[in-house]
Automatic annotation (TrEMBL):
Its cofactor is Zn(2+). Residues 11-178 form the Galactose-1-phosphate uridyl transferase N-terminal domain. Pfam families: GalP_UDP_tr_C, GalP_UDP_transf. The lineage of its organism: Bacteria, Candidatus Giovannoniibacteriota. It is an enzyme of class 2 (transferase). Residues 188-300 form the Galactose-1-phosphate uridyl transferase C-terminal domain. GO terms for biological process: galactose metabolic process. This is Galactose-1-phosphate uridylyltransferase. It comes from Candidatus Giovannonibacteria bacterium GW2011_GWA1_44_29.
Length: 332
């Protein structure tokens, strides 16, 4: 494998990352500590009734199912939310030289039926139902007066922050635009103002021509390893046709998105031996107008390394495998 050591600048955010493949040669003296999985008998998500969920917001039967007995997905409020559920819009408060808002919002859990069947093992039809559930709750939460942003996340494994091993996703609806999303929006807007075109469309055009970092594509979506990856084996999924809003995709697009997720998460599971990872959707804020410059996308970040002093002290991510090698390894 060719050695790569270079700083790369993310064209959207302007952030720099360091691609340094030589660090793979470094010996590792610490053994990986594996946590024992929670037994199915003690899992709060394996039997929703036993976990005493007070309110089921949405349920969807498994493919071919017709009633709650055949449920594949159930969605309910998180029992231990990081935000306080409230429909009262928090005012901006001054605190000396600082500013703050009360931490209100909505946090929901999206649970799939099987205790062991994570994304990498699901069928395309099962994944498509999850995407449908994401959209349904996104649209419902968009109507809430105080919600400025909705973030859909999926944490797989303890290193990715999952406290319950049973496969589940979460939706956060909050009264602020998260910093990472704001940087992405600002970078996209700046590029559009300077070049009169979408930065992500420009990236896709370049990547599809060059092909070095393309992993998979179908009619509506492209899977690639981003040029300025922030972590080893980072993956992004973009719609081929310009669209600012995830919630706007139709059934045909949902089918193709399920296809890409099935392909790439199965490949990650097999090739990287079921790594922990974070997956999330970046889309335009539901109430923000003039966002035609933006291009929604889905990001997958495997958690294979621990940050050291350079990452924390300088804010420069060190990536140990080049995006080109990532694409070659994961390409179907």
């Amino acid at each position: 494998m060719k050695s790569t050591i270079e700083f790369r600048k993310d064209i959207v955010s302007g952030d720099w990352v360091l691609i340094s493949t030589d660090t793979q040669k470094k010996p590792v003296f610490f053994k990986k500590v594996e946590s024992k999985p929670l037994p199915k008998s003690k899992c709060p998500f394996d039997d929703i009734k036993k976990s005493r969920q007070e309110k089921i917001l949405l349920w969807i039967p498994r493919p071919g199912g017709k009633n709650l007995k055949d449920w594949w997905i159930q969605i309910f409020p998180n029992k231990y939310p990081v935000v306080a559920s409230s429909r009262i819009c928090p005012p901006l408060e001054k605190c000396g030289i600082h500013s703050k808002k009360t931490g209100v919002g909505f946090q929901e859990v999206i649970v799939t039926r099987s205790h062991e069947k994570h994304f990498g093992l699901m069928t395309k039809s099962e994944i498509e139902l999850i995407i449908e559930a994401y959209q349904s709750r996104f649209q419902a939460l968009s109507a809430e007066l105080c919600v400025d942003y909705i973030l859909i996340i999926h944490n797989h494994g303890s290193r990715a922050g999952a406290t319950v091993p049973h496969p589940h996703s979460q939706i956060f609806a909050i009264p602020i635009i998260p910093p990472d999303v704001r940087r992405s929006l600002d970078g996209s807007r700046k590029y559009f103002q300077e070049n009169k075109k979408c930065v992500h469309c420009a990236i896709l055009k370049s990547e599809l021509k060059e092909k070095n970092r393309i992993i998979y594509q179908n009619k509506h979506f492209v899977v690639l390893a981003p040029y300025a990856s922030r972590v080893s084996y980072e993956i992004r999924i973009f719609p081929k046709f310009h669209e600012p809003r995830f919630e706007a995709i139709d059934q045909t697009q949902r089918n193709d998105l399920a296809d890409t997720l099935k392909i790439i998460l199965s490949e990650i599971f097999k090739t990287l031996q079921n790594p922990d990872y974070n997956m999330f959707i970046h889309t335009a804020p539901p109430k923000e107008r003039n966002v035609e410059h933006y291009h929604w996308h889905l990001e997958i970040l495997p958690r294979l390394a621990t940050w050291g002093g350079l990452e924390l002290g300088a804010g420069i991510d060190v990536v140990k495998i080049s995006p080109e090698e990532t694409a070659k390894l994961l390409r179907k």
